[in-house]
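[Discussion] Sanity-checking designs against the backbone

I'm trying to build intuition for which residues belong where. Below is a structure token string of 247 positions. I'd appreciate it if someone posts a full sequence so I can compare it with mine line by line.
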């Protein structure tokens, strides 16, 4: 279901399409009572292709409802509209880290600042029993004030939801191939260390301007995560200190 500009959904008026992902369409929407602009995510209606989609969307809502951190995009509310789940999120103005990287080298001080903020968000989420499982530059927003917002918990694993249902079968690979941890590649059970690995790949890319593993096929990339060591970043970017290179 694609919503047209001006359409009312509950107490919200659709302003524009922001994008789409594996589970839903995302819009900017104005709360007609408060006037505040929010991000609205609506579950895609094609349930037949992915029977677990509604439960996964519900799990994302429950996960975000338990998180309250300045570096994690906040869930405002959730409701049903015409038998479809609707999620209202904080509207984050800015650009993804992925887009920022295309604009040229990121100053070292900014790399360290962004890293500290991402790691603060991850530490908080991990202490809440949540593993993100899809850390990558496209899921890290930078506001105009330099504030980091971690986005898209759509495939996150919550210890609370593991007690409720098993959304990922053993042996299933889930994540983004360039940033995937070895245990994700193998389809093993993941824990917070997977997020740390994926952020390590992201940090390497911020420091050097390229990913640690590059290959022509997804298979070759996944194999590299399992069996290869990347070139030390200080050899790619000589301004990196030995201490940061070791990290």
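Best answer:
Here's mine. Compare freely.
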């Amino acid at each position: 279901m694609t919503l047209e500009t001006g359409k009312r959904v509950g107490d919200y008026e659709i302003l524009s399409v922001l994008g789409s992902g594996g589970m839903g369409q995302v819009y900017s929407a104005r709360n007609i009572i408060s006037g505040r602009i929010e991000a609205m995510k609506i579950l895609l209606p094609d349930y037949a292709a992915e029977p677990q989609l509604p439960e996964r969307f519900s799990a994302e809502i429950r996960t975000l409802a338990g998180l309250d951190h300045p570096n994690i995009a906040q869930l405002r509310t959730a409701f049903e509209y015409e038998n479809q789940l609707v999620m209202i999120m904080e509207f984050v103005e800015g650009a993804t880290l992925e887009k920022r990287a295309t604009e040229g080298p990121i100053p070292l001080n900014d790399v360290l600042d962004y890293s500290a903020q991402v790691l603060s968000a991850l530490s908080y989420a991990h202490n809440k029993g949540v593993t993100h499982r899809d850390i990558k530059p496209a899921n890290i927003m930078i506001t105009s004030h330099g504030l980091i917002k971690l986005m898209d918990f759509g495939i996150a694993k919550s210890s609370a939801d593991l007690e409720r249902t098993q959304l990922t079968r053993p042996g299933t690979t889930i994540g983004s191939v360039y940033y995937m941890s070895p245990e994700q590649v193998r389809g093993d059970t993941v824990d917070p260390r997977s997020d740390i690995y994926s952020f390590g790949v992201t940090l390497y890319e911020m420091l050097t301007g390229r990913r640690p593993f590059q290959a022509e096929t997804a298979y070759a990339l996944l194999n590299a995560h399992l069996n290869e060591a990347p070139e030390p970043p200080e050899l790619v970017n000589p301004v990196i200190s030995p201490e940061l290179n070791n990290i």
